[in-house]
Amino acid sequence: MMNNEEIKKIKKLFSEKKEIVIIPHKNPDGDAIGSSTALKYFLEKYDHNISIISPNDFPKFLKWMDYKNEIEVFSENNKCIEKLLNADVIFTLDFNTLTRISKIKPYIEKSKAKIIMIDHHENPDYYADFMYSNPKMSSTAEMIYHFIEGLGGLSKIDKNIANSLYAGILTDTGSFKFPSTTHVTHEVVSNLLKTGISNSEIYDKIYDDNKPEKIQLLSFALRKIKIIKDFNTCYISLSQNELDDYKYEKGDTEGIVNYGLSIKNIKFAIIFMENSAENIIRISLRSKGSFDVNSFSKEIFGGGGHKNAAGAISKKSLDETIKYFLKSLNQYKNHLINKI
Fold this sequence. Notes:
- It is a single chain.
- It is built from 13 helices and 12 strands.
- Helix 2 runs antiparallel to helix 6, helix 5 crosses helix 6 and helix 6 packs across helix 8.
C-alpha cells in the first residue's frame, strides 16, 4: 500500500471538490473496467465530478458494471480532451506505461493534473505523482480495495462498488486459480460478499451470457491448437477471415488461450489473432509454473505483463509472426523442457 505520507497528501488533495478523470488501458478487460467503475462510484460519494475515459470500446459482457452507461470512449472530436486538460486529478488504472492508452497519451502529458497510478504490472514507468504499484497483487481491483481502505472508506463500499471489485478480481485471477491469488485476496472477496452481492450472478454475467457464434468460435479455435511436444508448448492462430466467419466482437476470444494450459505437460500457451483494421497481430501468452511469459513477451515481441500472463502485438503478417515465434522458441528450450 502507499505509505502514510502519501495517503495524507491524497486525503488533502481530495478535501475539496475535484474534477477527476479515470483512465483504463486500451482494450480494457474485467479488471480495468471493474477497477475504474468501482473507483468512480466510491469517489462520487464525496461529491467529486468523475469521468471514465476509455481509449476504446470494451466487451459487451462487461457493460453491466457501467450501469449508468457513463464510460466515454475517447475521440478527438468530443469533450474528452477538454476533460483531460481541465482535470485536477487523473487516475491511470491497470497499466503502468502511457503507451497503453494510445491517442490519450499526449493529453496526459500536457495535463497539469495530479496523476495517480494504481497498477499491478511489472516494470512501471515513472510518470505519476503518486504510484501505487505492486506486481504481487492479484489484480488492480484488489489494489483499489486497499486504496479505499487506506483512505478510511471501507464503510462506503456498497453493492455497486463491490460488484465491480469482485468482477475485477474474479477475471484477473482466472476465477481465483492463478498463483497471485493469496489469503488476503480471499479476505477481500469475503468482505465484498458481506455487502450482499451475488458471486454466482456476477460469474453468469461475465462467463455464461454468450452468443452462439462465440461458442462456435471457441470450438473452431480449439480444433486449431498446434502442440509442440518438444517444447511443452501449444499455440492457436486466428485470421481476420476466420474471426469474421463467426461474427467476432471484442471480447469473444477472451480466455481461449487458457485452454492450452489444460493439456497435459503443456506449460506455455499462446494465441495469435489477426486485426486487419489496425494491421497488427494481437498476441496473448499464458504459462504455468516457472516459465516467465512476461520476459518472453518483452524480449521477443516487445510486450509485457505478468510472469504467467502477458500480451503483445506484432506488425508482421500472421504467418511471419508465427514463424518468428517458432524460431524464437529454440532459445527458451531449456526453460520449457524443465518440469512444471
